[in-house]
Amino acid sequence: MTNQGVAPQAFVLAAACLILLALPFVTTYNDLLTALAMQAGVAGPMQSIAPAEARMVVGLLQLLGIHAAAAGSQIIVWGPSGPANLFISWNCIGWQSLVLLAVSLTVGLRGESSRESSLQVIVVGLAGTVLVNLLRVAAVCLVAAAAGRDAAVFFHDYAGTLITIAWLFAFWAAAQRWLLSETVG
User: Over the stretch 96-105, which tens digit does the pLDDT of each residue have?
Assistant: First the structure.
């Protein structure tokens, strides 16, 4: 494996370590920071994405046969215990995973890959990351419906990060195997 092949995984591993070390701090202050950012108006443009994401998540849940509905940034999902109401804030839409993807693309696409291969990696990375974010939010909804709000919050705060990290490792393994195997000669 070339240095280019190791670089994205090394970056994702380093980022994963930092994220996991900071996770208790991040989750403790996340709600406060989210509320402050929303009051300051910083979150407005990103919050405008949440209603579309909510509708897409409801579509995924309905494909799975789960009774769910969206109203703006709210998702209601019905489970054995009754309805669970969830709010998608700007901080839950997955922008952090897109930033991590962008940085890993910067690291992973250094080298001798063709423009076509690099473009394919970028498109697959973006599409996959968006899909993983939708699946992550849908999983939070399923946990809320099955086990309640507290379990869903715990899943969101901890498993959501691990899902993103697992996705990036799988993405780079696949990208290196099938998209970046050819180099410009």
Answer: 788 889 989 9
State both tokens at 178.
């099938």
Asked if 58 and 75 count as a contact pair (C-beta separation under 8 A), the reply is yes
Region class of 83: left (phi > 0), else alpha (psi between -120 and 50), else beta = beta
**How far is the C-alpha of 161 from the C-alpha of 133, rounded, in Å?**
10
DSSP H helices in the chain: 3-40, 44-47, 50-63, 95-108, 115-147, 149-154, 160-174
Q: What is the pLDDT of residue 134?
A: 97
How many angstroms separate the CA atoms of 71 and 87, rounded? 10
Residue 74 tokens, joined: 């709210």
d(CA 169, CA 163): 10
Least confident of 26-35, 62-71, 146-155: 26-35
In 3D space, the residue among 140, 94, 108 whose CA is nearest the CA of residue 13 turns out to be: 108
Contacts of 27 (CB under 8 A, 6+ apart): 157, 158
H or E, element range at 87: strand 82-87
CA distance 152 to 89: 15
